[in-house]
Amino acid sequence: MTQLKKNELIAEFMSMEDHQEMGEYVTPNYHKSWDWLMPVVEKIADLKYWSINATLEHLSDTADADGLYDLNQVYEVVVSFIEAHNKDKEKVSVLKYLHDRGYAVEFLWHVHDVQQGYDCSDEIALELLNATLGSDNVCEGVFEAMDVIASNEFKLKPKE
Q: Can you give the three-state secondary structure of 32-83, one letter per residue?
């Protein structure tokens, strides 16, 4: 991603539409100035309910002996955080859409769940998940558990 695209991503995150500030066009310089970057760090701190210091520690691997952080390193991690944040917002939106249409989405499995236990590509992990979740054993187990919970916890009777 180019420097310009990264700065535009941050500007959008900061709700700085078309790089307008007080009615004038400004060039975002998040990568050059703590004056530009610190409000972004503060917004991230607010989102995560962290202190500014905790946020800076999270966004930077190192601080020098004076406790100063590397602007470029913090900038790059801020960009990564915003990319992940945007993906999370999209995921929440998609899950809400499915939930509102009657799909149970609270216990979705992800390729990373597979990769915690197996060294494999995303493609193989997804194939393994689909094969596992679609297996007869899993389907039978789900329906058996549904029968027990429907009867015991919800006091439902099966259809005739």
A: CCHHHHHHHHHHHHHHHCCCHHHHHHHHCCCECCCCCECHHHHHHHHHHHHH
**Residue-wise pLDDT tens digits, 79-111:** 999 999 999 888 889 999 999 999 998 888 999
Under DSSP, the state recorded for 106 is T
DSSP 17: G
Assign 153 a pLDDT band (cuts: 50, 70, 90).
Answer: very high
Amino acid at residue number 70: D
pTM of this structure = 0.60
Distance CA 105, CA 108 (A): 6
Rounded-to-integer distance, Cα 61 and Cα 73, Å: 8
